[in-house]
Amino acid sequence: MNNLEKPSSTNHNNRYIIIGVSLLILTILTVWTSYFTATVGVSIAIALAIATLKGSLVASFFMHLITEKKLILVILFFTVIFFFALIFLPFSDTMNNVGIPNDY
Amino acid sequence: MEIPFTVSERPDTGLTNPKFGIWLFLASEVMLFGSLFSSYIILRTGSLDWPVQSDELNITIGAINTAILIASSLTMVLSWTALKEKQFKRFKLFIGLTILFAVLFLVLKIWLEYIPKIHHGHILSTNTFFAMYYLMTGLHALHILGGVVVMIFFWGPGSKMWQTNPDQFVNRIEVVGLYWHFVDLVWIFLFPTLYLL
Description:
The structure holds two protein chains of two kinds.
Chain A: H1 9-36, H2 40-62, H3 70-94
Chain B: H1 17-45, H2 53-56, H3 59-84, H4 88-119, H5 128-155, H6 161-164, H7 166-196
């Protein structure tokens, strides 16, 4: 495929600008909600939900994952599985020891 | 020796080699930063006196830096579309802006965060929180620095390839862009984790 094929560039650029502005608005929302949420648990849930939404926008549109080849999606699928294993397997063990002093 | 499939797609993967390579690299980067996030969770849940992070760090500077990185991601993708439209001057403008945003991020990080904290005696050995803060943001800052070096090359001497092999140059900018968006994506998660929670 020729890389210099002319895309419908104005539409693409407008879409990128809309995504960029959305990300900025979500950043303001993240900071704002951190001041006004009642409990730590709710704060963590909201902050991570907004961060996940922002990350999805970056990956889908700026990194073009929504139109990417299947092989890359397969690689990322396994990456996500291993990522969550890395996060939650140690976390599940740590939750059994919350409040118990450790030697860190 | 010429590296094969830098412009055309490999028949077996359906991808150019650089694009396949950068995605494999980014997958490994996910695991690198994932291991740090995992360590952070273990250390924080195991600690009895974790400081209130929002009291220790400057949320305003963190939020401004987030906005700067988002803006840099936008200018990066606009530099790529400029090349696809064969608008080389616009490409130079947008990748130049991306470099400026990246340098601004580092300047704010070092001058308004690291240096004042070090002056106040908040260093790596102060407590576990600051150890993780400097480790995670420091590794991220090194990724920013690496991106800046590569972008300066493609803004300057590396841009000569546009005259000799424009297709390959567009591919190179796309690969740099993927790396840069990943660096932005990592910060999107680092900011709430370290500054707000």
